[in-house]
Amino acid sequence: MGSVVFWNSLRFVVAVLAQVLICNHIDFLGYINPLVYIYFIFLFPFNVNRSLFLVLAFLLGLTIDMFSDSGGANAAACLVIAYIRPFVLRFAFGISYEHQSIKLANTAFGQRMVYIVILTVIHHFVLFSLEIFNISNIVLILENTLFFSIFTILIITLSISLFSRKKS
């Protein structure tokens, strides 16, 4: 139990630091930053208390909001994907999720991509909808969602491939 708390605390801190110190300063094509802090939500253990998970997701988003001066949009977007994560897990992994036997790095590439893509696109759509908050700018919202999602998905997929320990 203690090691689970330690590793998740470390992931939380690394996610915030990576986002604030590195990713917020990338500006690919002049304005696109990968939002890699959501990686914490993707990797959080599936069998932990759901209420605790929702609180941690909210705190993650709120911490990013404090550094980004974004008025709670990140907190709301993180809370939304944390809330719908069980449904997306069930959709992407089926019976493996029901038996709590998923290790993200050891799943099939297609299943992993479905999981990451759905949550990333939803997160980014909620985030940009709240940041822009004007239905007349729906094209801008969709454009930002698409481009930021592609960049974020690429970075997260590469990091899973590079930093995970595959068990043969």
Automatic annotation (TrEMBL):
It comes from the Bacteria. One of its GO terms (cellular component) is plasma membrane. It is found in: Cell membrane. It is a multi-pass membrane protein. One of its GO terms (biological process) is regulation of cell shape. The chain crosses the membrane at residues 6-24, 36-60, 72-93, 114-133, 145-163. Keywords: Cell membrane, Cell shape, Membrane, Transmembrane, Transmembrane helix. InterPro entries: Cell_shape_determining_MreD. NCBIfam families: shape_MreD. Belongs to the MreD family. This is Rod shape-determining protein MreD. It comes from Kordia antarctica.
